[in-house]
Amino acid sequence: MFEILEKVRRELSESSDEKTRETGLRFFREEVSLYGIRAKTVKEIARANYAFVKQLPRQEIFSLCDSLWQSGMMEETFVACMWSEKLTSHFVPEDFKVLEGWVHKYVNNWASCDTLCNHTVGEFIQMYPEFISALKRWAQSDNRWVRRAAAVSLIIPARRGKFPDDIFDIAGVLLEDRDDMVQKGYGWLLKEASKPYQKEVFDFVISHKAVMPRTALRYAIEKMPPDLRAAAMVK
């Protein structure tokens, strides 16, 4: 089974480029490990090798993904996210322990956080909404990335008009967070929620703008009409 990991890593290494790696590093303030591969190429490698992986039992696929996460290499975590996303239609409630473990143990930058949570965790939550209570616990974590994950895990559901009360609950918990990556995370969530729930998001922003960080506020109102944006920005 683990021969496939050797193959993936070899293909990633052979596709790496120092210029791409240096460019990628500029997107992060924290230390990250990169091969230096364009996103399109990573997707092609993940997709091609999934032809073998998809024949394995779900738990073996999770084990492969866990090994990729353990490496700490950004592109390997992307492959893990792509493979786990393809499992979403087969998820069972017990799989949340695996996803939550990855968030707490391995996520250490915005890219791995968003790639895992936007789709894999987000799709799981839509299947099993009772686990939103876990996201609310994440929002109170000491770990900045776990707090961001609480918000970005609801991005896709927000676009689909789902869970508005829970979205506002999480935004409320994160409201005065001092970490700008968390502010951007819940601001982004509110921005997506503003598409189906413009009035509700606008009212939330107006009622909290005295304490809401400007970074989060700007994200939240980004897709609103100019008159509403102007009203929200007035101090």
Secondary-structure blueprint:
Elements lengths: L2 H12 L3 H8 L13 H15 L4 H14 L2 H12 L10 H10 L4 H18 L4 H7 L5 H9 L2 H5 L4 H11 L5 H14 L4 H11 L5 H8 L4 H8 L2
What count of structural domains? 2
Shape, per Cα inertia axes:
globular
What share of the residues lie within helices? 55-70%
Secondary structure category: mainly alpha
Q: Describe the main β-sheet briefly.
A: none
CATH-level-2 architecture of the largest domain: Alpha Horseshoe
Whole-angstrom Rg: 19 Å
Query: Can you count the beta strands?
Result: 0
CATH class of the largest domain: Mainly Alpha
Average pLDDT works out at 96
Outline the low-pLDDT stretches: none
Strand content: under 5%
Topology as a string of helices (H) and strands (E): HHHHHHHHHHHHHHH
How far from one another are the termini? 59 Å
What's the number of helices?
15
The CATH topology of the largest domain is given as: Leucine-rich Repeat Variant
Can you tell me about this structure?
By secondary structure, the protein is mainly alpha-helical. The chain folds into 2 domains: 1-86, no CATH class; 96-235, Alpha Horseshoe (Leucine-rich Repeat Variant), CATH 1.25.10. α4 (58-71) packs antiparallel against α5. Helices cover 69% and strands 0% of the residues. The N and C termini lie far apart (59 Å).
Based on the model shown, name its key terms.
mainly alpha, Leucine-rich Repeat Variant, 2 domains, 15 helices, 69% helix, 0% strand
What's the gist of this structure?
With 235 residues, this protein is mainly alpha-helical.
